[in-house]
């Protein structure tokens, strides 16, 4: 008769904890401590203000950064960097939410290529000879 709403399990890494190695979570992850290594999460990741995640790659559905992250990031949903968040690394995400005051350094790519029109072909710029360059300079004086 009554169905229980299924909830994902939460894995919590406290502020006094440090983990080193590859981490795979079948649920959500909240990091208040330190993680060194690759992180693969089926659910969502939240890095709190005192949390640090550092590794080659972080994958999750939604990722919210209040603390620090240094890794290549893939978010199947939304990547959010709050005003206290810091991220260094390349990002692939379906959606981005970067708040004023947040720090980000890296390259961003969106997953939904249908959202943008196709880019036009690059223009070919003709190479000018030395004589043509000198003639242009003479005209400008």
What does it look like?
- The protein is mainly beta and 141 residues long.
- The protein has one domain.
- Helices cover 8% and strands 47% of the residues.
- The chain is built from one helix and 14 strands, in the order E-E-E-E-E-E-E-E-E-E-E-E-E-E-H.
- Strands 1, 2, 3, 4, 5, 6, 7, 8, 9, 10, 11, 12, 13 and 14 form a 14-stranded parallel sheet that branches.
- The protein is elongated and about 70 Å long.
- The N and C termini lie far apart (88 Å).
Question: How is the topology of this model organized?
Answer:
Blueprint: E1 10-13, E2 18-20, E3 23-25, E4 28-31, E5 34-36, E6 39-41, E7 45-47, E8 52-60, E9 63-65, E10 68-81, E11 86-88, E12 91-98, E13 103-105, E14 108-110, H1 130-140
Parallel strand pairs: 1-4, 2-5, 3-6, 4-7, 5-8, 6-8, 7-9, 8-10, 9-10, 10-11, 10-12, 11-13, 12-14
Summary of the model, kept short:
The protein has 141 residues and is mainly β.
- Residues in helix, %: under 10%
- Mean pLDDT comes to 86
Helix and strand content put the structural class at mainly beta
Q: Roughly how many Å is the radius of gyration?
A: 23 Å
Number of helices: 1
Tell me what portion of residues adopts beta-strand conformation: over 45%
Principal-axis shape: elongated
Unreliable spans: none
Q: How many angstroms does the end-to-end distance come to?
A: 88 Å
Report the order of strands and helices: EEEEEEEEEEEEEEH
Number of domains: 1
Largest sheet geometry:
14 strands, parallel
Number of strands: 14
């Amino acid at each position: 008769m009554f169905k229980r709403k299924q909830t994902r399990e939460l894995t919590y890494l406290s502020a006094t904890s440090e983990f080193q190695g590859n981490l795979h979570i079948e649920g959500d992850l909240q990091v208040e401590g330190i993680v060194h290594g690759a992180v693969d999460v089926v659910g969502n990741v939240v890095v709190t203000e005192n949390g640090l995640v550092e590794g080659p790659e972080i994958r999750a559905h939604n990722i919210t950064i209040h603390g620090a992250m240094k890794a290549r990031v893939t978010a199947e949903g939304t990547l959010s960097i709050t005003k206290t968040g810091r991220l260094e690394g390349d990002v692939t995400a379906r959606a981005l939410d970067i708040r004023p005051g947040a720090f980000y350094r890296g390259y961003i790519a969106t997953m939904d290529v249908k959202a943008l029109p196709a880019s036009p072909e690059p223009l070919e710029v003709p190479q000018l000879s030395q004589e043509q360059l000198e003639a242009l300079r003479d005209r400008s004086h």
